[in-house]
Design brief:
One of its GO terms (biological process) is lipid catabolic process. Residues 10-191 form the PNPLA domain. This is Patatin. The longest helix has 22 residues, at 236-257. This protein starts with 5 loop residues before the first strand and ends in an 18-residue tail after the last helix. Strands 1, 2, 3, 4, 5, 6, 7 and 8 form an eight-stranded mixed sheet that branches. It has 13 helices and eight strands. It is α/β, with parallel strands linked by helices and 330 residues long. The protein has a single domain (6-312), classed as Cytosolic phospholipase A2 catalytic domain (3-Layer(aba) Sandwich). A hairpin with a 4-residue loop joins strand 3 (121-127) and strand 4 (132-137).
């Protein structure tokens, strides 16, 4: 009897500097499994900070180097605030300039394009020119003819342009806002991608490994006013969007895939919540909490029999239909 084809999806959530938690989990898993994380997955999805990690893994950058990027460059990414931005806060301009983030990305990816990637990716963003979600992908289907020419830096900037925190991003495809607005937890998109484009009409086994960012459910205090203008919402509105998405996607993937869905994430304790509450908080306390909890989460996963299939799977070489890595037989 012929075995069903199997596809493994890695889904990396957004969360600003809390992406250090995700990067730490990936580093520990990669060290324990003894080979690049990307080799275990047939599709890597990532949003915002998770999108930067996904692009790095698909570029075959070691997970430990991606972890160092967050740890060593966090201040440069989230510290670009001149006097004007500090003075007017959230009111007229984004909290941070995006120059620091772009410089970090350029140093890491230089002029490489999506077509240079060795592994399939799906990176959500929102095209503010059209008002629609946009999903940047490697050319793993004949219809995907444009994205392979885009610079990795431009795609990373597009998925990470968090409203209020960073300015919108313009590239040759339009104006873009953070992918967290359409899918902060991209596992559901990954499942759809496999069923629609990688294995359409095929009775395939699909497993999804999702790694979160210690997302804190955005809630309102019992003493807070209900009549809230922008001055009261500020970054809390975006936090609410992504935390609500996380819980909804988690529920749907659990219902759809059962044991074939595995999530690595943890809730911050009350004493740790203040350390990691803000998406852009870069501090010694935040760094220690994110790294410590990430290491522990990875150890728990490695000892869990439900995680074992992800460590054993060897992804096949992807077929690309366009770009510099085109290898289809057609």
């Amino acid at each position: 009897m012929e075995e069903k084809p199997t596809y493994h999806v890695l889904a990396l959530s957004g969360g600003g500097y809390r992406g250090l938690y995700t990067a730490t989990v990936l580093t520990e898993l990669e060290a324990a499994l003894g080979r690049p994380i990307a080799s275990h997955f047939d599709l890597i999805c990532g949003t915002s900070a998770g999108g930067m990690l996904a692009l790095g893994l698909a570029s075959e950058i070691p997970a430990k180097d991606l972890k160092s990027l967050f740890e060593n460059e966090g201040q440069r990414i989230f510290g670009s605030r001149n006097c004007l931005r500090r003075l007017i806060g959230f009111w007229l301009k984004a909290k941070h300039d995006s120059a620091g983030l772009r410089s970090v990305l350029v140093e890491r990816f230089q002029e490489k394009t999506i077509g240079d990637l060795k592994h399939r990716v799906l990176i959500p963003s929102v095209n503010y020119t059209t008002g629609l979600g946009q999903f940047f992908k490697t050319p793993h289907h004949p219809k995907f003819q444009l994205d392979h020419g885009m610079k990795i830096v431009d795609v990373a900037m597009a998925t990470a342009a968090a409203p209020v925190y960073f300015p919108l991003v313009r590239n040759n495809r339009g104006v873009f806002a953070d992918g967290g607005l359409v899918g902060n937890a991209p596992g559901l998109f990954g499942l759809h991608e496999v069923r629609t484009f990688l294995a359409p009409g095929v009775d395939a086994n699909v497993r999804v490994l999702a790694i979160g960012t210690m997302t804190i459910g955005s809630t309102i205090s019992g003493s807070d006013t209900l009549d809230r203008g922008f001055g009261r919402w500020r970054g809390g509105l975006f936090d609410l969007v992504i935390s609500a998405q996380e819980s909804s996607v988690h529920y749907m993937l659990e219902q759809s895939l059962g044991k074939s869905y595995y999530k690595i994430d943890v809730t911050a304790s009350p004493s740790q919540s203040e350390d990691v509450k803000a998406l852009d908080r870069v501090s010694e306390a935040a760094t220690n909490t994110l790294k410590d909890r990430g290491t522990h989460s990875a150890q728990c996963a490695l000892g869990d029999k439900d995680f074992e299939p992800f460590g054993k799977h060897q992804a096949g070489k992807p077929i690309f239909y366009h770009g510099p890595n085109k290898n289809d037989a057609g």
